[in-house]
User: What shape does this take?
Amino acid sequence: MSYRVYVIDDDDQFRNSLCALIESVGLQVDGWGNPEDLLKKSSLHRPGCVVLDHRLPVLSGLEVLRIIRKTSSIPAILISAYADVQTAVAAMEM
Assistant: This one.
């Protein structure tokens, strides 16, 4: 069984580093600089998960997660250097 991790972060250096780390433990990873490209995919493969930055230029991580939830129950990890309690609560409610 192959696991796939989808990483969405607009910071190229961080995204590439995180993707390299994930690959180093033998998982398949797709990195995306902009969520619109990921959302064009017809489905997100399971087993796997989405690692999603909260602060993105066009759509927030929460908005992207809401869109993903319409078609998939894939697990998601929302990351942010600027977290607050309200954001954490909103993410856990999805």
Remarks:
- The chain has a mean pLDDT of 86.
